[in-house]
């Protein structure tokens, strides 16, 4: 069992990102049992939940004449327009029922500001509004952050990059994550992760304490 210095950050394991969901990630459900196994080895587990108001700016349906997966420009930069997903208090926004992490210590909800998206568990997409997670981790003595979940190339990658930028050693657990891979986004994310010093690991190595 790892000390509380090591935090497992389980990202967006919600029905809308699972097969059959509104913004399904292929094989997204396969990471749930891996996340459960990993969580049993960590005393300190934090969950995130994408949690949007219905009028959220990232939804294509809220932009006349626009379709999901098109790009648009918002005051804070380029934004993918997504299918409507993870609307607050809907089934799609709920954490997967097979997720078995009763000892999780915190749950960060992100994307709750109507005009700002938030892929990262640390900083919203305007790159200035903090979620409070970095402060929480510092106050609880965390040193290392192990990130996994959905999707590798968006919320997991952005969270891992921001964990690293906040000064934590950061590991992305590859086989406990699945990607959307939109227009080369997965390769681009890995290039950024490697350049930032985020380690890439497999769950077996994390469970065995090798990473
Ligand atoms: Zn979202």
Automatic annotation (TrEMBL):
GO biological process, one term: pyridine nucleotide biosynthetic process
Gene3D superfamilies (alphabetical): Isochorismatase-like
InterPro entries, per database record: Isochorismatase-like_dom, Isochorismatase-like_sf, Isochorismatase_Nicotinamidase
Pathway involvement of the protein, from the record: Cofactor biosynthesis; nicotinate biosynthesis; nicotinate from nicotinamide: step 1/1
Keyword field: Hydrolase, Metal-binding, Pyridine nucleotide biosynthesis
EC number assigned by the record: 3.5.1.19
Keyword Metal-binding on entry: yes
UniProt-listed PANTHER family: LD05707P (PTHR11080:SF2), PYRAZINAMIDASE/NICOTINAMIDASE (PTHR11080)
Membership in a protein family: Belongs to the isochorismatase family.
Record-given protein name: Nicotinamidase
Species, as recorded: Paraburkholderia bannensis
């Amino acid at each position: 069992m790892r000390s509380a210095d090591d935090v497992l950050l389980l990202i967006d394991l919600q029905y809308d990102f699972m097969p059959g969901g509104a913004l399904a990630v292929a094989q997204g459900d396969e990471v749930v049992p891996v996340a459960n196994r990993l969580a049993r080895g960590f005393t300190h587990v934090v969950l995130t939940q994408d949690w949007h108001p219905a009028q959220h700016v990232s939804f294509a349906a809220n932009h006349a004449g626009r379709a999901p997966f098109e790009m648009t420009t918002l005051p804070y930069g380029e934004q993918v327009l997504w299918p409507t997903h993870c609307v607050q208090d809907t089934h799609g926004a709920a954490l997967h029922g097979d997720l078995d992490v009763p000892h999780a210590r915190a749950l960060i909800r992100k994307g709750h500001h109507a005009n700002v998206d938030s892929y990262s568990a640390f900083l919203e997409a305007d790159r200035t509004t903090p979620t409070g997670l970095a402060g929480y981790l510092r106050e609880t003595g965390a040193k290392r952050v192990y990130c996994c979940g959905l999707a590798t190339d968006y919320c997991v990658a952005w969270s891992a990059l921001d964990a690293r930028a906040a000064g934590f050693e950061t590991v992305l657990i590859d086989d406990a994550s699945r990607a959307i891979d939109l227009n080369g986004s997965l390769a681009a994310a890995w290039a950024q992760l490697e350049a930032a010093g985020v380690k890439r690991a497999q769950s077996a190595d994390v469970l065995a304490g090798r990473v």
